[in-house]
Amino acid sequence: MTRKLAGVLLLVGLGAGTMFASDVGRDRRDVGHDEARIERDQRALHRDLRRGEVGAARYERRELRSDYRELRHDRRDLYWDRR
């Protein structure tokens, strides 16, 4: 009986390990997407500032703050998943 229970627990443990391993790939992809979004928003911010569109620049700064926050979160997740 204890061997069966130990076998079931081992299988559950191995299944959980592969579940966490897939998160690393997703986190890496998310970091790449966030970095690309930040680059786009920075270009848009510079364009708006050149044109003198203050309202649009304010919006882009808000978007950049949100994107940087999300990037920090994704990098933290990636770091903790690899530990």
Short account of what is shown:
The protein is 95% helix and 0% strand. By secondary structure, it is mostly helical. Helix 1 (2-51) runs antiparallel to helix 2.
Low-confidence stretches are none
Number of strands: 0
Taken from the alpha-carbon principal axes, the silhouette is: rod-shaped
Strand content: under 5%
Helix content bin? over 70%
- In this structure, how is the largest beta sheet organized? none
Order of helices and strands: HH
Oligomer, anyone?
Answer: single chain
Overall SS class = mainly alpha
Radius of gyration: 21 Å
Number of separate helices: 2
- The average pLDDT is 86
* Count of separate structural domains: 1
* Measured distance between first and last alpha carbons: 34 Å
Report on this model:
95% of the residues lie in helices and 0% in strands. The chain is mostly helical and 83 residues long. It has one domain. Helix 1 packs antiparallel against helix 2. The protein is rod-shaped, with a radius of gyration of 21 Å. The chain starts with a helix and ends with a helix. The mean pLDDT is 86.
Strand-helix topology:
Blueprint: H1 2-51, H2 54-82
Helix pairs in contact: 1-2
Keywords:
single chain, 83 residues, mainly alpha
